[in-house]
Structures are given as structure tokens and as C-alpha cells.
Amino acid sequence: MMVMVNALPFLWQGLLVSLQVSAVVMIMALVFGVLLGMALTYAPWWVAWPVRGYSDIARGLPLITLIFFVYYATPAVGLNISGWWAAVSALAAFETAHVSEVARGALQSIHHGQTDAGRAIGLTFGQRMLYVVFPQALRRFLPPWINTVVDTVKGSALLSLVGIVDLMLSVQQVIGRTFRPLPLYILGALIYFVINYTLSQVSRRLEAHFAYVRE
How many CA atoms lie within 13 A of 129 on its CB side? Predict the structure, then answer.
């Protein structure tokens, strides 16, 4: 127990890096994922097909493969970005593909009669999305989106493989000094569990808050 307590100050900085990476990736994936989901649903075929290809490829690759590919491919094409941004970009590309499918499913679940009615009263496409489709799709979007957020937090542990000192690498560094792997891995697992359990609770509260939209 004392090993776990004494390790907490050393793990704090790594935890902050993991949370920072997860927050940046979550915001990027949400913005671009919703836009791509709209493209899959409403865009003409010459826009939707490339988006579909990107989504299928990114979701079909293991995350660790995508991280190593971006990490080593960017210098090969002359892009000098830090390892941190290379890893974040790979994780964001992976999660964006998943969010795009979540957004597509939520948008397509809204009956086309809703948008037809909005068009009939003179609403523009943006107004139909903002006032008609999005409020109804939100409650269907939230649960699977929270799952992608949880996956983002867990996926951030792979950043340690490219030298990013996140929570997992911090745990390994402390293990290298104390030679007590079991309690420290348990501590790391508990920290990840607390973060993800908190996200799950937030998800339930959001679902309850937006449950006013009735079928």
C-alpha cells in the first residue's frame, strides 16, 4: 500500500498528460466526426465515398498500427512535427472515424419526414439541422459517443510506446525504480477505472437531461 501512496506524486504529471491528450483528441474527433457523419448522410456521392473510404480504413486498422504509421510517416514526407502531435493526430484520426459512424447512425435514425416538413416551411439546410434534426439525434448520439470518449482515454495509454510520458509510462518508470510491478499496475488500473467510471456517470446524467425528446 505504501508503494502505491508514495508513487502518486510521480504519476500526477503523467496523468495530466493523459487527460490533456484525451481532451484534445475528444474535441477534434467530435468536431470532425460530426462533420464527416453529416457528409455520409447528406453529401453527394463524390463527397460521401471518400469519407466512407477513410472511415472504413481508419476503423479497420489497429490503433497501435496507426500510431506507428503516423509517427514514422510524417518525417518521411518532410513534416517535422513532435512525437506528441504525431501520436495525438493518429489517435484523433482513429476516433474521428468512429464518431463519424456514430453521428451517421444518429442522423439517419431521424425520419426523413422531419426534414421534409422543415423544408416545407422554408427552413434552410442549416436551420433544419439545428432546430429539427440535431435536437432529436442528440439523445441517440450521446451513449455511443461517450463510449468513444472512454476508448480515447484507454487508447491514450498506447502513447507511451512512442515515448510520450503519459500515465502508463510514468507507472513503468516508477516500477523501474521500485521493482514492485503488481501494486503499481493495480494503481494505474484504478486511476483509469475512476476516470472512465466518472465519464459513464456523466453520460447517464446527460441522457437523463436530454430525455425530454420523446419518440
Answer: 13
**CA proximity to 97, closest of 59, 48, 53, 135:** 59
pTM for the complete prediction?
0.89
Q: Where are the domains of the chain?
A: 2-209
Q: Which residues of the chain have pLDDT under 50?
A: 215
CB-based contacts of 199, cutoff 8 Å, min separation 6: 146, 149, 150, 153
Cβ–Cβ < 8 Å for 39, 99: no
Q: What angle do helix axes 181-209 and 134-155 make, rounded to 10 degrees?
A: 180
**Per-residue cell: 197:** 467510471
Angstrom distance (rounded) from CA 73 to CA 121: 51
User: pLDDT tens digits, residue range 2-25?
Assistant: 788 788 888 998 999 999 999 999
CATH topology for 2-209?
MetI-like fold (1.10.3720)
pLDDT at 95: 96
